[in-house]
Structures are given as C-alpha cells and as structure tokens.
Amino acid sequence: MAASFSPLLKLELPEKPIQELIKTTGKQVPERYIYKLPNKAADHSVIKYMDSPIIDFQLLSASSLQGHEKELRKLRSTLSSWGCFQLTNHGLTSSLLYQIREVQKEFFALPLEVKQKHFRTVHWIEGYGNDTVSENQSYNWNDRLHLKVYPVDQRNFKFWPEDIPNFRETLDKYTKEVRRVLEIILKAIAKSLNLKEDRFFRECEGEQGIYMLARFNFYPPCSSSDHVLGLKPHSDASSVTILLQDKEVEGLQVQKDNQWFKVPIIPDTLFINIGDQLEIMSNGILKSVIHKVVVDKERERSSVAIVCSPHAEKEIGPLSELIDKERPQLYKTVKNYVNMYLQYSPTGERAITAMKL
Fold first, then answer.
1. Residues 6+ apart with CB under 8 A from 156
2. Which tens digit of pLDDT belongs to each residue from 38-69?
3. 98 CB contacts (<8 Å, ≥6 apart)?
4. Can you say whether the dihedral through the CA atoms of 130, 346, 245, 182 is positive or negative?
5. Which of 248, 264, 276, 322 has the fewest CB within 10 Å, making it most exposed?
6. For residue 346, cis peptide bond before it (omega within 30 degrees of 0)
7. C-alpha distances in Å from residue 227, one per residue of 38, 230, 255, 261, 293
8. Domains of the chain
9. Which ranges carry the Fe2OG dioxygenase domain (predicted)?
10. Model-level pTM?
11. Is the pLDDT of residue 73 over 90?
C-alpha cells in the first residue's frame, strides 16, 4: 500500500515581496526572516568549494564516443556520493542562456503593481511571491515566480507575464531544451546502474507526461546576510532539478558528509541535482542532495530552476531490479510525493525520512 500523509498546518505568506519590504525597512531585517537554527556557520568565506567532477553531456549522450563508459561510471560515482554535478556541453546556446536570464531580470524589475497581477496564494504554488511557512518558522530571503511549463496543455498563462514581449517564447524554447537534456540524463543514469536505458524516464514520464515547474529565484542583497538564508537547507521533492546559476554571484551550497561546500560558478554549465523521488526509485543508491542558498551583502542574485517530477497520480517506489538480498527495499511506495513533501517542508523535517522502512 502506498504511503500518504496530510497533516493540518497553519500556513501563511509574507505581507510583501522582499523587494518591496527592503524599501521600507532598509538595513533592519524583520524578525521573521532571521534564521534561528543552531550551529549555523555564519562565515561562508571559510567554506571550501565542492570538488565533484564535471560531467560531459556529449559523452553521456553518444555511446559511440570514446569515453562514454568512463563518463557513465563517473556519473554513478558522483550521484552516489554528492547527488549533484555540473553539466557541460549540453547544447543550450549561450544566446538562449542569456535570453532566459534577461526575461527573468525584466520581470523582477517590473513595478509592484504589474508583478502583483501574478501573485500566488497560500494554496497555489504557481505565481509570484515567497514560500508558505508554518507558525514560528523563519522566511526565506527571496522572491520567486513559479510557472508550470510541462505538460504544455497544463500551462496556466494567467501567471505568465504578458508585459515582457518575448517572455513566453523564451521560456517555451528553454523548456524544450531542458526537457531534451533531462531525457538524456535520466537514460544515462539508468545505464550507469545497469538498468534498461529508458527505465527511469518511463517511471517519470508515465501516461500523463513528466511534470516540469519553472522556478525563477531572486535574492535581494542583505546587509545582515549572516542572519538570513535565501533558501534554508532542504532536498528537492523532484526526480531531477536542472538549475541555471547566476552568472557572477555565488550562493548555492551543498552538503556532503555533514559538511557544507560552495558550488562554483562555471560559465555556461547547468547544475543538476537529484531529488527525493529518484533516491526512492534507486532504492537509495542515488543521493538526494541537501542544499541551501546564502545571500550576498551587496549584490542581488538570481537563478532559474526547472523542477522535474512524475505526475502526481503516478505511484513511485524502489525499482524491483535494485532490490535484492544485499540491498533490501529501503523505502515505501508513495503516490503524490510532492504533496507529502509540501506538508513536511514547513516543519523543517525531510519528507523522505518518513518514507524509509
């Protein structure tokens, strides 16, 4: 029987986007944004850079190329230890990466009265605003625009900014390219685990088509950046998340062996991280990476994430091929894991912990 979870939480949204909040509060950070968890490392300058390998997309996608098998082995090792990697030679042009960054920049530069036409509500993930939180929880220091981009017929265009002429065209083109990359990555991951090439892709695609959500992140600068977080430590509910980092301002950090590491900015690469659902499907061989975002004191930072998951009605669980006497089943099966994740997220707990047998 599939696991399910639906606790009642009192959720709320911030009164104002942070872009507007700092216009009135100045350097004073409201109490609700102060990050209060113990043992937080405030001095981010002493944190080392991650040293996981860069993965070459061309070597993953063409079995005829010399080095293909070596790259698959490198992929498995990286995802079993780090749960994430930088992807190069992915085929997205520098021009397209520039365009998606530009439309994001244009959106967050719009006047509030224009952006507020796209406000989200506490019960609706799509739209402009911040995250939902529960009582006594600190807020993330960011503003976001969430848009469902795939399946195409489920796009909710009332949230898509019509005041930016090329926004829809650019996001559509970017989504198609990311979906192409996603399919190859899922097939390469399956091959690296000695599964049929399309095994993970079929699990994620299903009859309804894979679910893809675009998340435009904007992190305003904060003079008290050692007291706030752009994103609190978490793993993603997705199968795979494909991230385009800021071109200049660092902030993303990942956790490995209970230590934090900075993710460097490498021009024209995509940052790929495994989410909870692929960890579950792989029976724990692949690791869903815990990560967070720190905020710069003086410079704003932005990023574009495409979160990729199976349809909500698709039941997921460890693949039978990855269960044996040496590695028994580690996780329950579950339907609508994202909903379960969203219920756990405001509590600060990891939903995947509840999935373990």
1. 126, 147, 148
2. 555 455 668 999 998 899 999 999 888 899 99
3. none
4. negative
5. 248
6. no
7. 12, 10, 19, 19, 12
8. 47-354 (2.60.120.330)
9. 210-310
10. 0.93
11. yes
